[in-house]
Amino acid sequence: MPEAGDQVKVVKRSWAAPGGLHDVLVKALKVLLPAGIGVLLAYLLLSPLSKDREISFLLDKNKVDVAGERLKVQSAQYRGQDDQGRPFTINAKRALQASSKDPFVDIDGMSAGIQLSDGPARIAAPKARYNMDAQKVDVLGPILVTAADGYRLETRDVRVDLNQHKVESNRGVEGQMPLGRFTAAEMQADLPSRTVVLKGRARLHIVQGGLR
Amino acid sequence: ASQTSALKGHNSNAPVDVAADRIEVQDRADRAVFSGNVVVRQAELTLTAPRLTVAYSNSGGIEIDRIDGSGGVTVKSPSETASGQFAIYDIESRLITLIGNVHLIRGDSNVNGGRLVINLRDGTAVMDGGAPAGVKSQGGRVTGTFTVPQRRD
Lengths: 212, 153
Known about the structure:
The complex is a heterodimer of chains A (212) and B (153).
Chain A: H1 3-16, H2 21-46, E1 71-81, E2 87-97, E3 104-116, E4 119-131, E5 136-139, E6 142-147, E7 152-156, E8 159-161, E9 166-169, E10 173-177, E11 180-184, E12 186-190, E13 195-206
Antiparallel strand pairs in A: 1-2, 2-3, 3-4, 4-5, 4-6, 5-8, 6-7, 7-10, 8-9, 9-12, 10-11, 11-13, 12-13
Chain B: E1 16-26, E2 31-42, E3 45-59, E4 61-70, E5 73-76, E6 81-84, E7 86-90, E8 95-106, E9 109-119, E10 125-128, E11 143-145
Antiparallel strand pairs in B: 1-2, 2-3, 3-4, 3-5, 4-7, 5-6, 6-8, 7-8, 8-9, 9-10, 9-11
Protein name (chain A): LPS export ABC transporter periplasmic protein LptC
Keywords (chain A): Membrane, Transmembrane, Transmembrane helix
GO molecular function (chain A): lipopolysaccharide transmembrane transporter activity
């Protein structure tokens, strides 16, 4: 039998010999481990009754960050009817209503469809504020109105009345209509009759591009 | 008046700028009504009137057909100033016609009459009694004062 094998046997035997280091260790653990479990259990049972730290807290509504938006909708659609009972729809990429009390909706990416006597018309504006009760839209920035017959009205910062299909502004206006580029202090555009009235020092720049 | 106007060869297709206290554009009727010290500018031509209408056609692009001024119209160009009760600027035929108590002031000469036709092609300005042929004429007369430039010889 090679000596190495005997060597290994000797080591094993010394581990198993009674009264060795291993024996003492196991005896000690046999007592300590169950005791440890007992102590831990006791601690867990008793800890909630200890008075020194109050774990519970009161939620203070002022400090907590209240979400301002009441209703935030992606790609919303609002519908209504004009004075003649014809439907209109307002599609919004993003619509934000501060609270159900006030009927205002801040719209990003508005595309409204209205029915005129001679066909549909589309009103597009990147930013607008829709008053649901009055069915009026305050456009903040550019607006483009296109009608079925190719009529186009481009302007900025106007109010669109969806009941009577009027586009108005009295705070200075500029834009482009079929006849030309205009600026004025006030504008009233009546879409059904394709009539635009400009007041104040009104100016019109007509570029002739006919086939003559 | 035989001198040719500075409006000779005026481009009637040039852009037109109109300013007024009130502008009403009726796209359906292809017409725009201007009221309240209206000023129309096209290249060197300036036309002012209390009331004015522009008739146009929109076939792919805007073409002004006629500009009518009323209530006392003044037509100004670098070489003359003409005024009359009514004015009709026919863009198509490039003629400006002034009717009713017409005054033409060109340089030192001053001509009055019933009707003045300024031809924008050849720059001629023809004043006549006013009543066109075939209409009962009230004996419109043409009066004028001419100053002959001093002969410096």
